[in-house]
Amino acid sequence: MLTAYDGVVCDLDGVVYRGDDAVPGAPEALQRMVAHGTRVVYATNNASRVPAEVAAHLASLGAPAEPADVVTSAEAGAERVAALVPAGSTVLALGGAGVAEALTRGGLHPVAPHDAADVAVDVAAVLQGLGRDLTVRDFETAARLLTSDLPWVATNDDATLPLPWGQSPGNGAYVDLLATAAGRRPDVVGKPHPPLYRLALRRLSTAQERTLAVGDRLDTDIAGALATGIDSAWVLTGVDRPSDLLARRLRPTYVVASLAQLFEPYAVATAEAGGWRCGDARVRLNDGDLVVDEVGASPVEAVRAGIAAFDGVQEAVQEAGAHGRTGSAPDGRRVGAVLDELLAAPGR
């Protein structure tokens, strides 16, 4: 697959690592990409960490990374703010260290919420990113400033933040808090919105059609790639499952089990008599249920075939309805459950 691309925009959590540990085989796959001349940048919605910290984490896992290889939503946010206010303007840095550093590197003067609480401080804009040490008073300061019409940019609007114990409120939850108080909403630059991917494209210096976005989250990584107009590879090492895909309209360019599969030929699912086939995998739909006749050596090929079967029957039913004919649509929940089980089977 990679022969069609000069650059890769790679997501982090769920693709390269999970928490502090590497996804098995991911660092080696990234080393191989770079060795073969494919340019790689890492794009993250996490605005709390500075690029050098992210790069150090990646390098400790064995992935090739320098600070310049990391593109954060804080950097995309600082770029947007810099386009809206004069150079050197004072900007409220409502977030972690990554927000303040991005503003400084963007030629702006970041001010912390406790300093901006002084009404004499002339704040020209607000850049909001996740900051886990922010206080209620910090948000009160931001709310006061946002009652005026000064520019307000948010690094991302992820509603939740995955932590080892489960889901914590993400930056999007705190954006909603301020939006309720201010009566308006910010300009958002992180995935699934295009600005972060556009910044990554400029960092890579690769053509849009020769760039591949890789991610595990459908609503951010894959939706963002589609919004930007670049090809995408959905990697099944993260949180989203095939059932999540079937519940949405968006579809990635590729479905792969891991980063290592990007070095393999891609088997495309096709319709055949009585069902669908992808590589050695064969599936069919029977009264809305997915029947897997042959999994083959790679269950991800059965997943591709199952997705194609679901989409093919859905399209046929919709076309029949447009011509006044009736048809039975497949049950996405039941089909998705079968595909989820394929990936969860022991040894898969």
Description:
The chain has a 6-stranded parallel sheet with strand order 5-4-1-13-14-15, sandwiched between helices. It is of the alpha/beta class and 348 residues long. Helices cover 37% and strands 21% of the residues. The chain has helices at 26-35, 51-60, 73-82, 97-105, 113-116, 136-146, 171-182, 194-204, 218-228, 242-246, 299-322, 332-344, and strands spanning 7-10, 17-18, 21-22, 39-44, 70-72, 90-94, 109-111, 125-128, 152-154, 160-163, 166-169, 187-188, 211-215, 231-235, 254-256, 270-272, 275-278, 281-286, 289-294. Helix 3 (73-82) crosses helix 4 and helix 11 runs antiparallel to helix 12 (332-344). It starts with 6 loop residues before the first strand and ends with a helix. The protein is built from 12 helices and 19 strands. The mean pLDDT is 92. The protein has 3 domains: 2-45 and 192-262, 3-Layer(aba) Sandwich (Rossmann fold); 74-188, 3-Layer(aba) Sandwich (Rossmann fold), CATH 3.40.50; 267-344, no CATH class. The protein is elongated and about 75 Å long.
Give structural attributes.
about 350 residues; alpha/beta; Rossmann fold; 5-stranded parallel β-sheet; 12 helices; 19 strands; about 20% strand
Describe the structure concisely.
By secondary structure, the protein is α/β, with parallel strands linked by helices. It has twelve helices and 19 strands. It has three domains: 2-45 and 192-262, Rossmann fold; 74-188, Rossmann fold (3-Layer(aba) Sandwich), CATH 3.40.50.1000; 267-344, no CATH class.
